[in-house]
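Example record for the data management plan.
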Amino acid sequence: KIARGEEVFRFPREENIVLADGFAFEGSVYSTEEFIEDTKTTAMLVIRDDVIKYEKYFMGGDEDTLFSSNSMGKSFVSALMGIAVSEGYVESIEDPIGKYVPEFVGTSLENIPIRACLKMASGINFNEDTDMSGFSMRTLMGKPAMEVIAGYGVQEEPFTYRRYLSINTEILGNVITNATGYSLAEFMEEKLWKKIGTAHDAYWTLSNGTELAMGGLSVSLEDYARFARLYLHEGNYRGEQVLPKEWVKDSMDISEAYAKPGANHDAYNAIGYGYQWWVPEGDEGEFMAIGVYGQWIYVNPTKSVIIVKTSADPDFMAKVYELKHVEFFRAVADGI
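Corresponding structural encoding:
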């Protein structure tokens, strides 16, 4: 459990607007209503200038429902790393991970910089599609996650390629807990969750008593938006710099070749990637958190728009699924 604080930030609410009729993608036009239904949407929230313009729940959910973040949780871990650095628990994200994870000392992973894990450019010899089930089974059977990861070795130097590996986020979570002495849930509760006006307690799934950093968070729809709002306001909540402004800025930096959209011609890399945030091509500063089965936080700072969409979509691995969603979110944002 990650307990909320006493003060709740309330978004003013208006009657649900009529969303844009549809959007264009790759020469075809898609109906908004059909797209929401076809992608098995469980809830959707649209906010502009801190005002809720649209909030709707499907499949039995409501404002008290805690929706699984899946890999949207990685963006929360990134925020916790930013706090750990700003408070001096972690000296620098250029530090080697072996400085904080004893299981890596003496292995080929020891000198990988923390920043390489943040950027999904660690070079660890792991395949997200073929190795994840084996990793999950070994850890579920009781083998410590860092011991399992230490055995994979590396296949290239850090910052050579961007390859989306959820174990990178598991490493980040372990660095935070070892450096701070807190569990991830404790650290998040004290340093983040009680400070941004959340309305509900959140929960973090445990694996062998340890928080599943790669995607174990469950959060209410509006609380996802409150987290996004912190980034929209450059880490500031009502005058308190919960996250350093520079950390928020650096989190969206995709200037390196491996971080740019389309890097490696890899299907996982159609969108740019910062510190555990996705950054699409464009000139409006957009950024996103994305989770399997269709979980989305979309933020457009230029338009001051936040969109949260949760789903239970078995077709989330379909070709151009993510790029199509970007155009959907843009059409919704443009239509407000």
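Summary line stored alongside the record: The first strand starts at residue 22 and ends at 25.
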